[in-house]
Amino acid sequence: MKLSVNRNIGAVVWIAGLLVPLVASNSWISILSIFAIYAVVALSTDVVLGRAGMYDMGHAVYFGVGAYVTAILNVQYGVPILWTMPIAVVVAAIVGMVLAAPMVKLRGDYLLVATIGFNEIFRMILINDVGGVTGGPDGIFGIGVPSVFGYSISSQEGLFVLNWLLLGIALVLMNNLDKSRLGRVFRYLKEDELAATTLGVNARYYKILAFGLGAGLAGAAGTLFATQLATVSPSAFVFMESVTLFAIVIVGGQASIPGVLLGTVLMFVVPQVFRDLAEYRYLVFGLAMIVVMVLRPQGIWPRRNRPE
Amino acid sequence: MSLLSITDMKVSYGHIEAIKGVSLAVEEGEVVTILGANGAGKTTLMRTISGLLKPTAGTITYDGNDITQTRADAIVGLGIAHSPEGRRVFGTLTVEENLMLGAYTRPRTEALETRKQVYDLFPRLLERRLQLSGTLSGGEQQMLAIGRAMMAKPRLLMLDEPSLGLAPIIVKNIFAALADVRKTGVTILVVEQNARIALKLADRGYVLEVGKIVHEDTAKALMASSEVQEAYLGKG
């Protein structure tokens, strides 16, 4: 009962967000665009970390794979932006599953270290321009604008609507995951993998699937990230980004949609707004993270445990 | 042909060999117990049968099929349910949700039927069916763990230390329920440190010591054996 109220509030907030460009300045619109993109990446991190319970400290890799797939296909091969998105999703999902396959049996802390390794390798591949397609440390410039039914979307408002739509789709998907058998299986695995296995759950299959879903969703966000900035470079997909995504899920609230969104606001929107305070903002965030973890280890807006 | 037979099985954790060549057989409809002290390899043996661990040597045959390399989740579907050591119920789920999870491999309508039988066996679980499992007493959690394993409608029910950490009166209740379970025709393999109560329930027993079977006999004979009495029944 309460859940459906929450869901309706969510829908109203999302629609209200869609109207923001009518009243807000361009800088606010671009901040909200960035929020929408990072919210999708954070929700995708939550699939692996918060729901399936695997310590993924390299999620920026999948986000980056999506962004680079779009950049390379669009700039080098002239593929229209929106056509690159399904390819970005599929490639990112495959990368996620292939990387996950040999390591999902690792225990939490070992998995975490392994994913950091993947993130570093990914960064080195980008910087060293392996295959001659990544543009090296400078990245790729001049990514085109998306067009829908022949209309080019080049304004901030137009891009915002596109980003906001993806966020809406991601929210619907996560909400369905909450109620689905798949979502419950992830939760069983997170809570007690051995017990779940003795009841007939194929742990390896579902853990790899969680990586595939999380990576695919991050790949979609990557497409819009490349489009929003019209450029991609390695610095956006480094270890520190993965740490931030990890922190969003843990600080916001694992497996909690509002928690993850709130975490995204704290980590990506608030720093933009308080730009003038420069380095001090990181001091404030570091302290805030410590305080939250000590006083509220379940996250700021945790998931409610309710009988299903 | 035995329902379950194990031949020359060895299991290692890295360099440490926990099971050093074990052979045993369980016939359909039997209750077999495996006795042994801490570290004898009882839990390792159970986990290997249910596919959670893979043996380094030997074979496990169930119902005529070699299941040595079968995945743990597929073994559940074959009719072997394993109630692991330490109960391991899902504390944030209700009693009823835990039970339904036990029928993960089965259609819902069949599961509801089995659930009725489980509630008949453990009326306590029916009383608490909407309660979060984390708030149950240890004995109730053990009933839930056994009930959850039964939800898979197994031919072979494997129980790892059902008496662990429970008051004697509760242990008695649980073994009384297991006696009812055997009447339904389910084969039971139970690992226990509490030799006395396990031998009362069982038809036959094996005694495991540091990874090897050192005795094997009918439950009555083991109960009477002076060695077993001395080591496991506390009589000098």
From TrEMBL, chain A:
GO terms for molecular function: branched-chain amino acid transmembrane transporter activity. GO terms for cellular component: plasma membrane. The chain crosses the membrane at residues 30-49, 61-79, 85-103, 158-177, 208-231, 243-270, 282-301. It is a multi-pass membrane protein. Its main location: membrane. It is found in: Cell membrane. It holds the Pfam family BPD_transp_2. Keywords: Cell membrane, Membrane, Transmembrane, Transmembrane helix. The keyword Transit peptide does not apply. PANTHER family: HIGH-AFFINITY BRANCHED-CHAIN AMINO ACID TRANSPORT PROTEIN BRAE (PTHR30482:SF10), HIGH-AFFINITY BRANCHED-CHAIN AMINO ACID TRANSPORT SYSTEM PERMEASE (PTHR30482). This is Branched-chain amino acid ABC transporter permease. It comes from marine sediment metagenome. The lineage of its organism: unclassified sequences, metagenomes, ecological metagenomes.
From TrEMBL, chain B:
GO terms for biological process: L-amino acid transport. The keyword ATP-binding applies. GO terms for molecular function: ATP binding; ATP hydrolysis activity; branched-chain amino acid transmembrane transporter activity. Keywords: Amino-acid transport, ATP-binding, Nucleotide-binding, Transport. SUPFAM superfamilies: P-loop containing nucleoside triphosphate hydrolases. PROSITE patterns: ABC_TRANSPORTER_1, ABC_TRANSPORTER_2. Residues 4-235 form the ABC transporter domain. Belongs to the ABC transporter superfamily. This is ABC transporter domain-containing protein. It comes from marine sediment metagenome.
